[in-house]
């Protein structure tokens, strides 16, 4: 039995055997006024959504698919800072939960991929919406590969994916993992609002393997910017610098915000 030690996250939990997408379901609940901390969990998703319009492979019985509704009331200036750090802080919370529950160290790829040995262990999809009375809310969707093996992935995903079981050789109790996940995410989100994000920014940066690497980031309008990732900006953007095209030119520096 897992005891939920959170204050708000998971105060209401909706469990489904199968849904199209827990994010879609949570979004509908939030629009209808579901409160902060409401969680939607599914054993299987038939239309799991990934970032940038991708799909998230969501077979039954082995993984974790959940979405958390969060709201925050604060002045606009603080709100935009909070909002831009939300995906990063969630990723940090998930990484800390995986480390705590499965003794597995995970890396973060900006903005919010969880990787082990460069393979994807989990991903996060944050979506913004508002209720009929214009109260803004966020839906944070988390997908984690837990107890599957290589054969559980379709051929085309195998090389780039991994699971907790593949990395540790052990099966994990998904209920325990979920309660740890909600607890660590709650801690990270609280730190974002109460204490500023000093600890979050530091702990995130420590885990982030993107810094110092050559990256290619897609920009709006089909363009892309390539360069070396230098830093996480105070607003959670990734600072990328590229060498001048011509001799004597100046390096170009670009700050890239995470897109859904
Ligand atoms: C990514 O592209 O890396 C983000 C993947 C997010 C997947 C999770 S699974 C639970 C929630 N419901 C969805 O439809 N997507 C997110």
UniProtKB/TrEMBL annotation:
<dbReference type="Pfam" id="PF03099">
    <property type="entry name" value="BPL_LplA_LipB"/>
</dbReference>
<keyword id="KW-0092">Biotin</keyword>
<dbReference type="InterPro" id="IPR004143">
    <property type="entry name" value="BPL_LPL_catalytic"/>
</dbReference>
<dbReference type="InterPro" id="IPR003142">
    <property type="entry name" value="BPL_C"/>
</dbReference>
<dbReference type="GO" id="GO:0005737">
    <property type="term" value="C:cytoplasm"/>
</dbReference>
<dbReference type="InterPro" id="IPR045864">
    <property type="entry name" value="aa-tRNA-synth_II/BPL/LPL"/>
</dbReference>
<keyword id="KW-0436">Ligase</keyword>
<dbReference type="Pfam" id="PF02237">
    <property type="entry name" value="BPL_C"/>
</dbReference>
<feature type="domain" description="BPL/LPL catalytic">
    <location>
        <begin position="1"/>
        <end position="193"/>
    </location>
</feature>
<dbReference type="InterPro" id="IPR004408">
    <property type="entry name" value="Biotin_CoA_COase_ligase"/>
</dbReference>
<protein>
    <recommendedName>
        <fullName>biotin--[biotin carboxyl-carrier protein] ligase</fullName>
        <ecNumber>6.3.4.15</ecNumber>
    </recommendedName>
</protein>
<dbReference type="GO" id="GO:0004077">
    <property type="term" value="F:biotin--[biotin carboxyl-carrier protein] ligase activity"/>
</dbReference>
């Amino acid at each position: 039995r897992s005891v939920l030690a959170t204050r708000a996250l998971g105060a209401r939990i909706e469990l489904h055997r199968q849904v199209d997408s827990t994010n879609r379901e949570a979004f509908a609940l939030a629009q209808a006024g579901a409160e902060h901390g409401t969680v939607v969990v599914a054993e299987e998703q038939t239309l799991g959504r990934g970032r940038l319009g991708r799909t998230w492979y969501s077979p039954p019985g082995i993984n974790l698919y959940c979405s958390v509704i969060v709201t925050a009331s604060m002045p606009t200036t603080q709100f935009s800072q909070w909002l831009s750090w939300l995906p990063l802080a969630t990723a940090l919370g998930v990484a800390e939960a995986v480390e705590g529950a499965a003794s597995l160290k995970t890396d973060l790829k900006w903005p919010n991929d969880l990787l082990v040995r460069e393979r994807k262990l989990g991903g996060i999809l944050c979506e913004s919406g508002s209720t009929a009375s214009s109260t803004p809310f966020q839906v944070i969707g988390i997908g984690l590969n837990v107890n599957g093996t290589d054969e559980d992935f379709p051929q085309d995903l195998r090389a780039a994916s991994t699971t907790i079981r593949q990395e540790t050789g052990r099966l994990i109790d998904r209920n325990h993992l979920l309660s740890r996940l909600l607890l660590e995410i709650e801690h990270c989100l609280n730190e974002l609002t109460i204490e500023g994000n000093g600890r979050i920014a530091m702990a995130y940066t420590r885990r982030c393997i993107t810094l110092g690497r050559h990256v290619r980031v897609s920009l709006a309008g089909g363009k892309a910017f390539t360069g070396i990732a230098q830093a996480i900006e105070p607003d959670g953007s990734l600072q990328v610098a590229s060498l001048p095209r011509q001799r004597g030119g100046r390096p170009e520096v670009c700050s890239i915000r995470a897109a859904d």
